[in-house]
Amino acid sequence: MPHDHSHAGHQHAAPPPGGGFNAAFAIGIALNLAFVAAETAGGLWANSAALLSDAGHNLSDVLSLALAWGAAWLAGRPATRRYTFGYRGATIQAALLNTALLYAALGFILWETIDHLRHPEPVNGRWVMLLAGAGILVNGVTALLFRSGQKGDVNVRGAYLHMLTDALVSVGVVAGGGLVVLTGWAWLDPVIGFIILAIIAYSSWGLLRDSLRLGLQAVPDGIDPEAVRNYLLQQPEVQSVHDLHIWSLSSSGHDAALMAHLVRPGGADAQWLATLSKGLEAEFHIHHSTVQVEDGPTPGGCHSGCQLPEAAAHGHA
Prior knowledge:
The protein is mostly helical. 60% of the residues lie in helices and 8% in strands. It is built from 9 helices and 3 strands; from the N terminus they run H-H-H-H-H-H-H-E-E-H-E-H. The protein has helices at residues 22-46, 49-75, 90-118, 125-146, 154-183, 188-215, 225-233, 270-284, 309-312; strands at residues 240-248, 256-263, 286-294.
């Protein structure tokens, strides 16, 4: 049976270099580098596992911010003949790498904390409180720099959550330092280190989950694939839908793309396709859609292991 293959889609300008957060990344990296140096020196002098663990995590945050900044800059580069989507996917790679680095740092810090618990030594609680108090200010200010963009971009959200978590952890370190001063119990310091690790691991789980989903090209959060399928089936004269794929081009939650095959006798003209594309953007925030229209069932069925057109309306692609 002959087919009329038509495609609907449109290009969108790449995001600005740095994702619009160049100043935030630069300030955040500078502040945290200075704080890591101060906290490491203070942790060694005060013999504090909590301070050293926090310094190690802050160092990983500096690397995280640098990677996120580099990826955001790459995402703003124009598309090329080989990289037809541009470099937007760099933000997904950065989110995955940052998550892996974070958990590697947690493993190292855990080892150091266990060693301090087995061999507790006197801790200068007042010095711990002073440096951790500075950490509240440094990390809190850095987190605020990314607050406006954290809801729509996993890459930016990673930077925001790292900084916000560190600010909250520093509050705990201040409290722990006070307890050491009041009680003289040196073993409280590594215990606080364990609590810090647990907080960081827990708060980072959502970032790990979302990064993996993006890397596996899952349907973006906020888009119901069945609702999209039903919307396509409701279009005039569309009989079935197959080879439906929805994914994100970058770490941004507003950078979704769609590819689908529709069975529609007589095919479709440019106006019908343009209306469909605008509807997908308005209803589901899918900004890049490619639709192939066929005038009958495709010989051999689907092309990517999905369900056949006759069953597509009753299941998932």
